[in-house]
Amino acid sequence: FKLGEDWERVVEALTIVEGQRGFAKAGKPLQRTDRPLQVSRWIQNARLCDPMPLGDRDVFTEAWWRWWRQIQPESRGVGEGEGPVPVASRVDTGEWDQMDKPGQNGLYSVVASLAWWGETMLHNATAREEWCVAVDDVCWALGCLAAISADA
Fold it and tell me: Bigger pLDDT: 111 or 104?
């Protein structure tokens, strides 16, 4: 996927986090509550390399944000609500256990779904802006997970 420098930062951050955890093949999955249907289908279909078709992008992004909010540490206070997670909620204290899920059913699912979303927004400035917000928040969260592992 060629989605720009922000995207490359997410891939790098995921690589660091997964590397710190020994590139586990499988582990406990991320919470399934509100997980986008496309992510579930991707997992059921052996995680194919090709992007999953999103269907209605707006429906997908609403589901993606609900799922992303559900897997955040409680300390962020964003489990309820819709749409992008406010930057003001970024507190790196708290329990990251429910998001710290390495392996193919964990953080890879978040990053893969961002890639599919990214493929749909290349010619839509409004969609790109929201995607960039998601990419930035995922990158921040991965950085927090990397810091926890580095401190341990």
Answer: 111
pTM score = 0.90
> How many structural domains is the chain composed of?
1
CA distances from 130 to 45, 64, 142, 148 (A): 28, 12, 18, 27
Q: Residue 151 is encoded by which pair of tokens?
A: 């401190």
What residue has token string 């909620």? 89
Q: Return the DSSP state at 29.
A: P
3-state secondary structure of 144: helix
User: Helix or strand or coil: residue 110?
Assistant: helix
For 108, the domain range is: 5-151
What share of the chain in percent tops pLDDT 90? 41
Residue 124, amino acid: N
Residue 80's nearest CA partner among 90, 70, 71 is 70
